[in-house]
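re the bet — no i am not wrong, look at it urself. input seq straight from the record:
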Amino acid sequence: RTMLERMSVGIGISGLAEYLYKHGTDFDGSLKSFQIVKDLAELHYYSLLKASIKMVEEGELEPVEGVDFNWLPIDTKRSKLPPSLDWESLRGKPRGHSVLTAMMPCESSSVFSGTTNGVYPPRSKFVYKKSRKGSLIFICEGFREGESVSAWDIDNETLSTYYALIQDYTDQAISADDYYNPDNYTETEGKKPMSKLVKEWVSHFEMGNKTKYYTNTRMDSSSNLRRLEGKIAGGLLGGVDLGGEGEDCESCTL
């Protein structure tokens, strides 16, 4: 009964990093990059809301109860980038779902779709992903070692800005990971200063983000990671079974 009354769905974005690469940019904190992410997030929610309204108008769904149909993301967004779509045409119209969007890590979905995790920057060009079939090798298309922005090297305040642009056009809190690389804090023996932590925390919520999710710590040193990536690249070129599961792993065989 509750499910039918609320009709909650959670449709999100996966592969944001590759989307940025295809548009000639990166998680580099540039205005062009921010604009691309804002436009995508805006179009994403606008399209879902328009579809939900259409399903009610065509009689496929009853209007959901307990939702303020007058609320639109443009009423509560925090960023200064202006909206570009005709939001007012949707104001006040009954819709068939209580919530429409969800931004989650989508680990299993990214394995299925062959994309980078959700709206997160990639950690490396070569990443092992867990699945029911075991550990699978994933190659991030468009990521250039030494040039592209990795999750380990992006400033968390910059990352929070990307999350905030997406949160502006999301009707519930998103999963917002941050990343900690001890190699970036050699002067303090790998420890991030408390002043830096507090600044990141405060600015994250001042931008309009509602939650934090995981803090991911890089356990491998840079040299170890480079050696690992060298082995992976050599394995790919040499035709080595990286999955280590032989014929039992359908995904590795494919």
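see?? The helical segments are 2-6, 16-22, 31-57, 107-113, 156-167, 194-206, 222-238, 250-253. told u. also Residues 236-254 have pLDDT under 50 and may be disordered. so pay up
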